[in-house]
């Protein structure tokens, strides 16, 4: 076996390992942190993940990185996620009602427009103008539980880890504004 | 500057008040810094403008905007041998329900139970005539609201107060039991639908527990 073949085999083995650690959930939060990736794949883990992400394109998946609070490579979290967005009907068949998604969209947009945090009571009052009271309470609790929103002990809501991992927040804000302009 | 003015401060209280004022000013500058950074970021939108936009949009528009920016995480939940071992250990060491709260509450508490119609009558919550009238009224209301279709259970039983909601849910349970309405639960969305049945009641009965809290 030539040196080139050996390197390719090693790269493929590391890519398989990377896919394995990314796809199997460990603990409550999905994804693997940078320092763990380094341990599994070695110091060139970023290159391996980049190549893997390119290969996964054919399957409609990608490796996505979410920067950690510390802003270091070690604290960055790597996740496997869908490259393309689902359609509304696909989201509904996955158990999300249109009302739930609308509450979540409005909540994330409101939190982002208020410098990243908003009082839960204030948000509830605003959402109740558009949705039934029980739906607002139920949806907010559900999204806090799933990690889309985060509530602190003072009752302030922020976007949660799952929102940062799954949602392109800038596009969401732009789309909401654009649709508003199109509305009569 | 401090060295120059330090001798002018005669009292320690004045110095403390000044330092406190300085600290508050620093806090204001810090908050202003955060505010400017946020406004300069691409996520900044005037909150009032955004609220107005959200009010104008339909639920479908909001949901559609959301899914267009959504990339769900792909993952596999799998039970590992270690997880199975931990679950087994937990189950083996779990104290039976009857023993679990014995120390805190003792054995004398009354367990939650059922209350039948006779008991409600004896408590003056319902009289027989009133009960029949209200049953017919709620069935009529269901027919009016649903027509030939279905209506959402939670919206239908919801009232101004929790007590009234509970009474409406109780009455609906009788209407369904009597076969004058049918109930359907969507397993995906967990929505519950009611549809009135006009005509003779069927024989098939089934118990459905619904949380209205």
Features:
heterodimer; A: 184 residues; alpha+beta; Aspartate Aminotransferase, domain 1; 2 domains; three-stranded antiparallel beta sheet; 9 helices; 57% helix; 12% strand; B: Arc Repressor Mutant, subunit A; 11 helices; elongated
Average pLDDT score of chain A: 87
Low-confidence stretches of chain A: none
> Approximately what portion of the residues of chain A adopt beta-strand conformation?
5-15%
Q: In the CATH hierarchy, what is the superfamily of the largest domain in chain A?
A: Winged helix-like DNA-binding domain superfamily/Winged helix DNA-binding domain
Distance between the termini of chain B: 65 Å
Work out the radius of gyration of chain B: 32 Å
Q: Structural class per helix/strand content of chain B?
A: mainly alpha
Q: Could you say what the CATH topology of the domain at 128-196 in chain B is called?
A: Arc Repressor Mutant, subunit A
The geometry of chain A reads as: elongated
Name the CATH architecture of the domain at 128-196 in chain B: Orthogonal Bundle
Q: Count every helix of chain B, treating DSSP H or I runs of 4 or more residues as helices.
A: 11
Order of helices and strands of chain A: HEHHEEHHEHHEEHH
How far is it from the N-terminal to the C-terminal residue of chain A, by CA? 69 Å
Helix content of chain B: 55-70%
CATH architecture of the largest domain in chain A: Orthogonal Bundle
Question: Please, how many domains of chain A?
Answer: 2
Summarize the largest interface: chains and residue counts: A-B, 61 and 44 residues
- CATH class membership of the domain at 128-196 in chain B: Mainly Alpha
List the total number of helices of chain A.
Answer: 9
* Main sheet summary of chain A: 3 strands, antiparallel
H-E order of chain B: HHHHHHHHHEHHEE
